[in-house]
Amino acid sequence: MGAASVPYDPVPGETWSEPWPPAEPSNGPSTEPSNGPPAEPSNGPFIEPPATPPPPAEAPAVPQPAGADLSVRITSYPKVAQPGRPLGYRIDVGNAGPGPAVRPELRVRLPEGVKVLSVDVAECKPGTTARLSEIVCSSGADVLKGGHGTLSVVGQVPADARGALRAVATIKSQAADGDATDNTAEAVNRVGEGADLAVRLTRLGGGPAQGSARGSRRAAVAAPGRRAPGARVRAVVMNHGPQAVRDGQLFVRVRGARLVASEGARCGAHAGYVGCRLHAVPVGGGTRVLMVFAPAANARHARPMTAAAMVYSAVLGDRRPDNGKARLRVPLRPS
Questions:
Q1: What is each CA distance from 264 to 10, 13, 117, 212, 216, in whole angstroms?
Q2: Which residues are in the DUF11 domain (predicted)?
Q3: pLDDT number for residue 228
């Protein structure tokens, strides 16, 4: 007789329908899929991990050449630029090392409109750009540690310049520079207001003026009559401002005559020209200079005397330089 199904009631009120005792677990392969993670390979004592390859050997360091340390400075004079007058620059360059500067190149960019008048280094050329105020100086050789040089540039400030004029100097080379902060320098100049001097030449009749003004120079000369040799020329100088002029100068280039007397300024005769130091000329005021000319000592035939005058300040610029020039033609008879 088979085993009877015995109800099992481990907890009062519940029934168990499975046969008792429970069936033994099967040793055969499981037919149900496993939902757990795959088993990891064993790292038992008989399985050694793969050996780690040694790091590749580093290549020996290649010594790098020592770099240069170039520097540039730029100074300008005068500090207050004047319209129509020269403005000078001095550029100093050097190499503090430790290595050489390989074929260094210096570039100087002058302010816009400033015309280059002179450069004292033959290797310097105008820049390749359309700017006429750029200068490029290229060295054909390396500059060793401690090497230095100086460049002087003179430019002309335009008559209509105003505000500030800024010039920039830059130096570089084909070698690495350990400190590039001093490879560029600049100079800034304020433009002054200047003055506006004008001159007019007039021929006068009769003899030399009587009396002597302060600072005048007189020479013994016969009163020139209508047919007598010699001529009296008066120069009238006016100052239209905006600054008073205390160092005015009158320059007169003369042909076919020589100065024999002057009044109204301290004048001196030289070969082919007359130079006069004027008194102070206030804004809106003027001064007069009388000059007496006689035919040149070697003149044998009657020919006219020509005089070309120019007035200017030794310090202040002039915004209208054209009215500071005048010309005069005077007939003379040889003595």
A1: 146, 147, 35, 8, 5
A2: 69-187
A3: 41
Q: What residue type is 155 in one-letter code? A: G
Q: Any idea where the domains of the chain sit in the sequence?
A: 70-191, 197-332
Is 70-191's fold the same as 197-332's?
Answer: yes
Contact 197, 311 (CB under 8 A): yes
325-332 β-sheet, strand order = 266-270, 273-277, 248-255, 303-313, 325-332
CATH number, domain 70-191, options 2.60.40.1530, 3.40.50.150, 1.10.10.10, 2.60.40.640:
2.60.40.1530
Question: How far is residue 19's CA from residue 236's CA, in Å, rounded to a whole number?
Answer: 145
Mean per-residue pLDDT pooled into runs of 10, the chain (335 residues): 49 49 54 55 53 69 70 96 96 92 94 93 79 85 91 95 95 88 96 96 64 36 44 95 95 92 93 94 96 79 84 94 93 66
pTM given for the model:
0.67
Say what the pLDDT of residue 63 is: 53
* Domain spanning 197-332, CATH architecture: Sandwich (2.60)
Amino acid at site 224: P
CA–CA gap between residue 74 and residue 152 (Å, rounded): 10
**Residue 141 neighbours by CB distance under 10 Å:** 11
Judged on CB neighbours under 10 Å (0-12, 13-18, 19+), 24 is exposed
Task: Provide the 3-class DSSP secondary structure of residue 321.
Answer: helix
